[in-house]
Amino acid sequence: MGDLTGVDEVMYWRRYKSGLVVNSFQIYLWMYDATKSMVEEYLCTDGLPITLSPIYKGDAVYEDIFENRDPRLRQTVLHPADAASYSWGATVPLLLGVSGSGSLTGYQTIKFFNQQINLLGHDGYTPCIILRFGEVLLNYAEAKAELGTLTQADLDKSINKLRARVGMPNMNLSNIPVDPRYTSDGVSPLIVEIRRERRVELFSEGFRYDDLRRWKQGAKLTKKDYGIRWDAAYKAKYDPTNKCSLKSENYPGTTINYICPNKGGNFENPVFEQKHYLWPIPVSARSENPALGQNPGWQ
């Protein structure tokens, strides 16, 4: 699949050709796994977040995280029942270090995996989508919401188009859920839900870091990442030193263990500083124009 000509959703893309110019796109994507935070972001099929929905089944059993959830979750993270479709010969979930290829978090990403053109370790001619219509719809809804002019009609021709194609309920301006996890973010429940939709739809497409900087939500980048639940999902097959204890929001008063993908590594205590909201101005640019100065914190 080296040609996206005629694909309605793709508005701008770059072609690659074996022997001329290639990429390591699939290898690059293989380095990224969904986290507990990401998996918990997907709404339930009643349109409510897991913190509010009575049909959320919890994560004590790995397969239960997919039940009654936005179909995009199963299209993004590997479900054990789908392993054969991706020529997965190992038990799912598979953690890095158990055997063969694996995931740091246990949530193996499959969003871009195409078994028919499995080019891992080979020259890649997978085309690069630079702009797709889904992003345009999300940009439109967010801009209208930030301006305070978003209407139900605007939602119906943007976010609700994305939801409709996966069979999810519409976002309704008159009934926006209030997810208790985000009440301290300093934005309205409407903005929260639009940002959630963006995170879900554009997962692993290279937007998250810049979005958090744009929203001045860098504090989220300082939170430790977690993976699959340890005590029920995979505890017999992995090094127990790689687990962390976390008080669960879904089971108040209890402590549940989850895989901690960064435990013992360089990202054990992630840092985001105020200066990271802006990039440093390059030396080359300041040499040409000394009047440019430097952004705060990069002197």
What's the short version?
With 299 residues, this protein is of the alpha+beta class. The chain has 10 helices and 4 strands, in the order E-H-H-H-E-H-H-H-H-H-H-E-E-H.
Overview of the structural elements:
It is a single chain. The protein has 10 helices and 4 strands. With about 300 residues, the protein is of the alpha+beta class. The chain has a domain at about 130-220. Strands 1-2 form a two-stranded antiparallel sheet. A hairpin with a 7-residue loop joins strand 3 (about 245) and strand 4. Helix 4 runs antiparallel to helix 7. The longest helix has 15 residues, at about 135-145. It starts with 9 loop residues before the first strand and ends in an 11-residue tail after the last helix. The model has no long low-confidence stretch (mean pLDDT about 85).
Question: What structural keywords apply?
Answer:
299 residues; alpha+beta; 10 helices
Mean pLDDT over the residues: 85
Our measurement of the CA-to-CA distance between the termini, rounded to an integer number of angstroms, reads 46 Å
Question: In percent, how much strand structure appears in the residues?
Answer: 5-15%
Level of helix content?
10-25%
Major sheet: size, sense and barrel closure? 2 strands, antiparallel
Number of helices: 10
> Which structural class should the secondary elements be placed in?
alpha+beta
Order of helices and strands: EHHHEHHHHHHEEH
- Total E-strand runs: 4
Radius of gyration computed on alpha carbons: 21 Å
Detail the poorly predicted runs.
Answer: none
Main sheet: strand order? 1-2
Shape estimate: globular
